[in-house]
Amino acid sequence: MGNMLLQQIKYFCTIVEEAVYGSGGEVFISQSAISQQIQSLEKELGVKLIKRENRRFSLTHAGEYMYRHGTALLLEAERICKEVQR
Predict the structure, then answer these.
(1) At residue 21, does pLDDT exceed 80?
(2) What does DSSP assign to residue 50?
(3) Phi, psi of 50 (to 5 degrees)
(4) Whole-angstrom Cα distance, residue 14 to residue 36?
(5) Residue 47: which H helix or E strand, with range?
(6) For the chain, how are helix, strand and coil distributed in percent, rounded to 5?
(7) With a threshold of 0.85, does the pTM exceed it?
(8) What pLDDT is recorded for position 30?
(9) Where residue 5 falls among pLDDT bands split at 50, 70, 90?
(10) Do 58 and 50 touch, CB atoms closer than 8 A?
(11) Are 49 and 60 in contact (CB under 8 A)?
């Protein structure tokens, strides 16, 4: 797993967290770098993570799985880095 994939997972989890904790369950996706990273991640995985409707989104089943496990993966990667630095 390359650093780029890890960064894409981080972007994805950030977008989902904003949707849940930021604006009451909806996020407006612009054609930004983050949106492009998520599309790139979907392409790499070969599955859709989000359902886009107009400029709003909801998670697919794969997206829900990616969010749950991606968040845990990111926390573990951070823990490993801190342990290595010690």
Answers:
(1) no
(2) E
(3) -130, 150
(4) 14
(5) none
(6) 65, 10, 25
(7) no
(8) 58
(9) confident
(10) yes
(11) yes
The encoded tokens of residue 28 equal: 């407006």
Q: What is the pLDDT of residues 64-80, one digit of tens each?
A: 999 999 999 999 999 99
Q: Scanning the structure block, which residue is given the tokens 């949707």?
A: 19
C-beta of residue 50 within 8 angstroms of C-beta of residue 11:
no
- Residue 20: predicted pLDDT: 65
Q: How far is Cα 51 from Cα 63, in angstroms, rounded to an integer?
A: 9
Percent of the chain, pLDDT > 70? 78
CB count within 10 Å of CB 80 equals 10
pLDDT of residue 8: 87
Q: Which residues have a Cβ under 8 Å from the Cβ of 19 and sit 6 or more positions away?
A: 25, 26, 27, 57
Closest CA to 18 of 38, 1, 40, 2: 38
